[in-house]
Amino acid sequence: MRVTLIAGTLLTLVAFLVGHGAGRHLDGDVEGDPRADSSIGARMLRDHFSASQSNLTLLVSTPGKVDSPTTRLYGRRLTKALMHEPGVRVIASYGDQRRPDLMSADGHHALILAHVDESSARLPRTLDAVSRDLESARGRLEVRMGGSATVGQAIQDTILHDLGIAELMAFPVVIALLLLVSRSVVAAALPLLIAVFAVEGANALLRALAPFTSVSVFALNLTTALGIGLAVDYGLLLVRRYREEVLTYGMKREAVIASVSQAGHTIVVSAAILVSALTTLLLFPLPFLRSMAYAGIATVTLAAFATVTLLPPVLVQLGQRIDTVGALPRARRPRHAVPSVGGEGWVTAVRWTARHALAVASTTIVILVLFGAPFLHARFDVSDVRQLPSRAQARVAEERITSVFPTQSVDIILGSADQRAVVGYARRLSTLPTVDTVDAPTGRYAHGLLTGPRQPARSSGGSSWISVSARPRTPPAELEALVRRLRGVGAPADRYVTGVAAINLDTRDSIREVLPYAAIAAVTMTLLLILRLTRSPVLTVQAVLLNALSLAAMLGAQVWWFQDGSLAQMLGFTPTGSLDIGVSVLMGVLAFGLSMDYGIFLISRLAEERRRRIEPFAALEEAVRTTGGTISSAAVILAASMLAVAGSRITSVKMLGIGVALAVLLDAMVVRAFLLPSVLALGAVRTRLTQARADASESRSREQVKPQA
Question: Going by C-beta distance under 8 Å and a sequence separation of 6 or more, which residues neighbour residue 394?
């Protein structure tokens, strides 16, 4: 026993040392489907045209004209300061090259395009150095710093800052709720030990994976919220069962063994269901969703492992001290009696529900369906810079650059082809609707005509880089339609269409292609695991269907709150008219798995009582009496940890935290407390009516047989 405890402590310390500061090694912005046309094109751009690829954009503004000698002098000073920074390469500057496309139409703004090394270790220091250069060299200029590198770093910094605040907020709330539930300082501390082990272990795994694959910094939010929530779920369930078994076995090892054999089995099945749901994220080729799978699977596995392996030796060592050391004042009850927070109250609610089963079932279903109705007009897209706070410098800079320079472009990488074929291809592209100009190695084209000179920087290693500029202020939907048209034009060689619009389009297409298979896999594995636990097809199907209702209600609420912006002013975010598609998939998987968590707690105990040949509804009452308080307490604590994460200033993180918290509370407080009992009560009534008809039919048959005898 002591060896197990020492090993667990050492593992936690090692995990803390390895995982400490993991966020600085993770990615603030991960690319789309690496197999997609757009991602291949983006990699070719980086490999063959890195000298011309800008990820750092400086917007230089002045009340006068940027073309004046004084302003150009300040611009050159700024450019020279940037050139001396390690990891920064200036690509183009209006002050040096006088390129018309780098000056705004009104002449008050100009651009400096640069490339900064996006190595996760060097990027923060490089951007800090650039910021200092802006302060020292700007003179009378107003300079804003944007670009993908700046936005990605801003997202990473914001998430890490908000994550620290979330942890400071979550732990006191969780501790207070655990004390209220456990009525003992020692008992309340046990789930927190599991949480530390799970969170630190998962962070260490993410840190170890970072050099080998792209891991999103968003994953840290998941390990924190999920680690705390599941540690509470599993810890409360096992400690509650231990206190129950103590009434039979006393403070002996047998009580711990009996607890693990019953509650431990439920925990393992519950963890397996959640892991199976998270595993479906690996079916998606997107690094973001795969990152969440790595984080979620590690956190769930470690939380379950710690509960069934490390917690039992602690219970053996503590013995009766689990309730006597640090016990809080409570109502008088028999020695070693099991604390029950709301257990009898839930039994009363279940009995009332049974008496009004039809009304409760129909009303609850109608309410959940109404909540889910907005999901019918859900729109999904990929988050942009608007997920940052409205006053974030990177967002302000990006929005200002887009406003002053409204032209958007789509990039094409063309394989080896002769010059005449490239000319013909570029001319055809320039005649497409919404196309303004086409920049190719053979020149600039507009409406099928050559309007500019050759651009030798657009050829490298036999490949050609063609940039298609859309008309100013082209809406996103039309820009994506342009991407599809570009892909429909016959090319003289292999070609890859890339750019922000193309990556977003391919990301959505990749998710939609895999989503049906992932959903079928998740539901199938869940059905099999629940059936293995309960051995009841009816309970199994009921659990999944009722879970689907709470999931639909959560998704509908998210459309109303985030897509339509009903909570925008209250929560301080910018509605975009769509939901982030990657976060929505993750939210659905987590909500499905975590909601099933509480369903498993209840139906596992229900199946256990039924095996004792207790009448169905009496079995439900006993299951609710023993698990109702644990489920409701665990749900509230898990929701609190998710809502702490929802305090993030990043909109997608906010949406994830609120969505999962809502799904958990709906399932624990509405579905398990009212809908499931009412459905079971209706089933019991139907069974009794069927049995009564069968008895009456048998009685009539006997009456008919008697005269003949």
Answer: 145, 146, 150, 151, 153, 154, 385, 388
